[in-house]
Amino acid sequence: MTHIKSMTRIMLTNMKRMRILLAIFMILSSSVVFGQTNNDNYVFWSPSKKLTVDDFGIKTKNSETVASFAQFSIDYQIRGFDFMTKNFNKKVRNYLIKSAPIIDTTTDVSISLRYQQTLFDISEIYTRQFRKALRENRKKLASGFQIAEDLNQKAITDFSNRRVIYDRDTNFGTIQDKQLEWDLQIQNELEELKEYAFE
Where do the domains of the chain lie? Predict the structure, then answer.
């Protein structure tokens, strides 16, 4: 019987060691993943850098396609002990993938750029709301990362719904007085959420 107890104790000790090694491995791999935030194919949202024609990987002419199109991405990198952090701003990113967007360079590109920048700014509002929600729900992350995925999906869905309203209200950014109203509203919302900016 003592032999069985001794073997059980050794097995439990080895299991504890394996868990500790696994936790260390997860922490180290998280550090590597977090270091991969720079990518030349990404244009990260910035209050000081506005979109330019160079940010659009596909340039068309003479109405071959739409005047402009861009896809914005909100993603996150949460691992291990992130539930202990109080600031999720650097763990959630809002960016455009340079190789995917389209712009017709034979039309008035200033209208297309303003339109796409407005969408990027709206995406930033929902990125900040996602960061805020992660902070408010950080203790739930200790039980698993499904809450982060749910909050990310909510942010993306809310952005998509708001984009439809903006497109309809401004006719894709072409109604000047409506565009100005949206610009003001967006700046106010970004200011209200400035605590959750990446920078």
Answer: 1-36, 38-196
